[in-house]
Amino acid sequence: MQCARYTEGSCRSCQWLEKPYTQQLSDKQQQLAELLDQQTVGTWLPVVPSPQQAFRNKAKMVVSGSVERPVFGILRQDGSAVDLCDCSLYPASFAPVFSVLKTFIARAGLTPYQVARRRGELKYLLLTESRLRGEFMLRFVLRSKTKLVQLQQALPWLQQQLPQLAVISANIQPVHQAILEGEEEIALTENQMLEEAFNQVPLFLRPRGFFQTNPHVAATLYATARDWVAALPVTSMWDLFCGVCGFGLHCATPDMPLTGIEISAEAIACAQRSATQLGLTQVTFQALDSTQFATGKASAPDLVLVNPPRRGIGRELCAYLSQMAPAYILYSSCNAQTMASDISLLPGYQIVQVQLFDMFPHTAHYEVLTLLRRE
């Protein structure tokens, strides 16, 4: 993939862009093999590749420049702005939205935040697209509520220009640090759930919720987990760190009890809505810390699926799983290093199969799905 920003050195977010894509995949697989070299792996499945461009469903744009000429993109170390509206990682559907938003910022008087002077109001634009109907979620990250009324008054014009904006909100982030969002989210549209669907499974995303940024690879990842679980002799399942329960809802059957645990109450509300739409009656969800939930139980189901953040599941949960000895653990990881560390703390388990999913092309990052069986 060719990128003018990379060539001129103004954006190096895609650190591996100069590396041929086949080499990227080979290097990632080699790194994963090295991390698991102390483990016996039953089957290494082939790497799942990604489209090399236009694969992202989310844009996280720093807003800089002036209210009349805003710039969406990143800030270099010297404070200069780099406009990334034409970034090849975004689908073509993003460009017209960015164009209208630049006009809207001037109409609404949303002064871009100036880092050096600590002045201005609009810090970031967060844009997420659903492939289901081509709808978007738009979040304005503001320094304060000073311009909130102006934003609300100008909003009808924006909605008229971009009817595909299904969900709009304002996030208040007052701290002068490189923190993407704050704790307060203000709904600007009645609807605050963006509907998506992977493999005919409905999924919902709220403004502060996590969702995979590469829908093509994510759909394959979920479908793979579904197929692996369908081949196992299991009758009950936990989905820990479940988010909106993409994994659990793919793996659930009408007769198999499933419990989904996620600390975010908003994510649990989304998961429950999906389960209701699917007509699943043996599914329950709780907004709890996954480790605290599990370690408070006297027994575990046949299958425990874990999809933790980059820190992994940790020593306490590994100790619990080793003691309760579920027949299978399905581990989805965005950080193979912490996954390998966790697996080393599960001595009673053997890796049945492992597969790498290239969720983040042109970078060193990737997803891994690993099936463990109790020996």
TrEMBL record:
Classification via Pfam families: tRNA_U5-meth_tr
InterPro entries: 23SrRNA_MeTrfase_RlmC (IPR011825), MeTrfase_TrmA_AS (IPR030390), MeTrfase_TrmA_CS (IPR030391), SAM-dependent_MTases_sf (IPR029063), U5_MeTrfase_fam (IPR010280)
UniProt-annotated binding residues for [4Fe-4S] cluster: 3, 11, 14, 87
EC primary class: transferase
E.C. designation(s): 2.1.1.189
Catalytic activity line of the entry: uridine(747) in 23S rRNA + S-adenosyl-L-methionine = 5-methyluridine(747) in 23S rRNA + S-adenosyl-L-homocysteine + H(+)
Active-site residue list: 334, 334 (nucleophile)
Keyword rRNA processing assigned: yes
UniProt GO MF annotations: methyltransferase activity
GO-annotated biological processes: methylation
Annotated residues for binding of S-adenosyl-L-methionine: 212, 241, 262, 307
SUPFAM superfamilies per UniProt: S-adenosyl-L-methionine-dependent methyltransferases (SSF53335)
PANTHER family from the UniProt entry: RNA M5U METHYLTRANSFERASE, TRNA (URACIL(54)-C(5))-METHYLTRANSFERASE
Assigned protein family: Belongs to the class I-like SAM-binding methyltransferase superfamily. RNA M5U methyltransferase family. RlmC subfamily.
Role summary: Catalyzes the formation of 5-methyl-uridine at position 747 (m5U747) in 23S rRNA.
Name used for this protein in its record: 23S rRNA (uracil(747)-C(5))-methyltransferase RlmC
Organism this protein belongs to: Symbiopectobacterium purcellii
Source taxonomy: Bacteria, Pseudomonadati, Pseudomonadota, Gammaproteobacteria, Enterobacterales
